[in-house]
Amino acid sequence: MREQIALLFRNFPIAAAKTGLLFSAEIVEAVARAVVDLSADSAKRFPLVIDPVIVATSGNRLLEPRAIELYERELFPLATLLTPNLNEAEKLLGEPIRDLQAMRKAGKEMQKKYGVSILLKGGHLTGNNAVDLLFAGEKISEFSAPFVHGVAPHGTGCTYSAAITAGLASGVSLKDAIPRAKEFVTASIARRFRWTSSSGKQLDALNHSL
């Protein structure tokens, strides 16, 4: 895998990158070492957004326990931004996050623990708005958008972090890339694809194009 990543960087101008589901400790370690190798060359340094995909919306674990340890020790410190949702933050901190006040406390703890900027996504909270908090430096910034009700979309977190990365790649600041990405995701949910599975269940997926 490290060779594959290096090949991409030799042949394409990479302005920013993100990670998503990595699953195993071996994959996490390979990605971390590749990033370290590339970062050794100052001309190839780039913003890195890490979406720590640990659990699915259904609650199923998507990452091996040892992989989480390597995430925290080797990959998180290399990030420009971590984008955990509340379930993932709970797994990393070992404590529940049930409201905006708890989000503020959790985000500060994660920022201190990992030494990087944190975008804590509050889409799993109840209420009329999806509120996300950015912990960057000494400042906490809030980003809010109305929930699109009656929808159970898949891929929102991945799309959100990818849209932020696209903004960073185009030279937009982190603070400006996040609201632009959030607006994009909200609009994508409103324009979602909907279909019925073989079991008769209605499914929604984002209609997105970065």
Question: What's the helix and strand layout?
Answer:
Blueprint lengths: L1 H10 L5 E3 L5 H15 L8 E3 L14 H11 L5 E2 L3 H8 L6 H15 L2 E5 L7 E8 L2 E8 L6 E2 L1 H14 L4 H17 L2 E4 L5 E4 L5
What's this model, at a glance?
This protein has 210 residues and is of the alpha/beta class.
Q: Which regions have little confidence, pLDDT < 50, spanning 5+ residues? A: none
Give the strand order of the largest sheet, numbering strands 1, 2, ... along the chain: 1-2-3-4-5-6
Helix and strand succession? HEHEHEHHEEEEHHEE
Average pLDDT, rounded to a whole number, is 85
Total E-strand runs: 9
Q: Which value, in Å, is the CA radius of gyration? A: 17 Å
Secondary-structure-derived class = alpha/beta
Main β-sheet description? 6 strands, mixed
| Overall shape | globular
Distance between the termini: 25 Å
Q: Number of helix segments?
A: 7
Percent range of helical residues: 40-55%
In terms of DSSP E residues, the strand content is 15-25%
